[in-house]
Amino acid sequence: MTVSPSYFDRMTQPRPLFVLALIAATAAAPALAQQTFETERLTVRTQVLADGLEHPWGLDFLPGGDAIVTERPGRMRLLSQGRLSEPIEGVPEVHAQGQGGLLDVLAASDFADSGTIFFSYAEPGPGGAGTAVARARLVRDGAPRLEDVRVIFSMPNKARTRLQFGSRIVEAPDGTLFVTIGDQGVAERAQDPADAAGTVLRIAKDGSIPAGNPGISGWLPQIWSIGHRNPEGAAWDPLTDALWTVEHGAQGGDEVNRPEAGRNYGWPVISYGRNYNGSKIGEGTEKDGYEQPLFYWDPSIAPAGMAIYDGDMFPEWRGDLLVAALKFQLVSRLDRDESGRIRGEERLFENAFGRIRDVNVAPDGSVWLLTDEADGAIIRLSRRDP
């Protein structure tokens, strides 16, 4: 197992403060619902930490115990001491229609010093809307607000659409950012490397092009890989030292991939799903020059956010993928062996909480879920020992 020192430091250094803050927050929070679930390997206790969020989409943890969460209509809030803040000021206008709106949020690895966050959203502009990524400084003295907001990537080809914007942001151990973008409901765009739709991007924190990108003639310089339908989950995997993604298929064919530079992941030329009218997609399930998924679901579970478990609270899950699912309202735990190969699936919490939009591993090893509901919630999973 190879773990970058910067990645390891980020995941482990804040834990003592986070645990103390979480104890205080639990004591301060109202007595919200708790449940217990038996899984294949352990018993899990769930607690609703906050509710009343409107379609929460992305969440990340801040040093000292706070968390930051987005709501798709365009609001961003802090969860601190068991309480949700008022909406953070300074969020730019978003295209909050259909699947569009305010999407993922990520605290930079140097947040304790810089206060920098990154967020993705459906950006309105000439021709419609497209996925954009911005950076800002989060100021928490008094009413929380964003300052120095700057767009570091904006889709050049905007479209009048309500569909498939992606999008997750992952900071790699080398400090570069991976960003996933959907095909905006026009499948053929995912095969055009001059178009950002249906791709995974790799950019520097200021939006510039880092060394090591494919740099293929005719490709947008930000593009890392193409042929993706709608990747709404992504995480850096310390086991394989690589980015992993999950993406929606159509009727079946949701995929887990490990995107590599310059590779084509097939949509819509190959797929393990079918169109919603039952017709065949593309040319079948495989073709030379197109990559195969590491795992796929058929029928579709409508996968959203994902995390790779690397905490201490659930050692039975260490190295496994935890994938949020909208359609069957569950978390899919993909069991992996020591090499990272997926060898099985366990489905957790089916129909217990509603549509699950995101999964996050907290610094103390607990797992936090977001429910994609009009009255959405933040739910914490912890261990319940006999």
Describe the structure.
- The protein has 386 residues and is mainly beta.
- The protein is built from 3 helices and 25 strands.
- It has helices at 5-12, 15-28, 111-114; strands at residues 34-38, 43-53, 56-61, 67-71, 75-80, 83-84, 102-107, 116-125, 128-139, 145-154, 169-171, 177-181, 199-203, 223-226, 230-237, 242-248, 254-257, 295-297, 303-308, 321-325, 330-336, 342-348, 356-361, 367-371, 376-383.
- The strands form 6 sheets. The protein has a 5-stranded antiparallel β-sheet, with no helix packed on it.
- A hairpin with a 2-residue loop joins strand 5 (75-80) and strand 6 (83-84).
- It starts with a helix and ends with a strand.
- Residues 1-16 and 26-31 have low confidence and may be disordered.
Describe the SSE topology.
Elements: H1 5-12, H2 15-28, E1 34-38, E2 43-53, E3 56-61, E4 67-71, E5 75-80, E6 83-84, E7 102-107, H3 111-114, E8 116-125, E9 128-139, E10 145-154, E11 169-171, E12 177-181, E13 199-203, E14 223-226, E15 230-237, E16 242-248, E17 254-257, E18 295-297, E19 303-308, E20 321-325, E21 330-336, E22 342-348, E23 356-361, E24 367-371, E25 376-383
Antiparallel strand pairs: 1-2, 2-25, 3-4, 4-5, 5-6, 7-8, 8-9, 9-10, 11-12, 12-13, 13-14, 15-16, 16-17, 17-18, 19-20, 20-21, 21-22, 23-24, 24-25
